[in-house]
Specification:
It is a single chain. About 0% of the residues lie in helices and about 20% in strands. The protein has about 55 residues and is mostly beta strands. It has a single domain, classed as E3 ubiquitin-protein ligase SopA (Pectate Lyase C-like). A three-stranded parallel sheet has the order 1-2-3, with no helix packed on it. The model has no long low-confidence stretch (mean pLDDT about 90).
């Protein structure tokens, strides 16, 4: 499980990213593009998802 707490993903493009079970507490995904991302069981507590384009697997 990856520890990605408080990471800045603003305007990132994550194509087919496998983030299952990742700890992304407090990370900023503002205007990021997540195409076919696997976020099953990921911890998104306090994460900023405003303006994020989500197309999940």
């Amino acid at each position: 499980m990856a520890n990605l707490c408080w990471v800045d993903f603003r305007q990132a493009i994550l194509f087919q990213a496998d983030l299952q079970g990742a700890d992304m507490k407090g990370s900023d995904f503002g205007k990021a593009n997540l195409f076919n991302a696997n976020l099953r069981t990921a911890n998104l507590e306090e994460a900023n998802l405003c303006g994020t384009n989500l197309r999940l697997a």
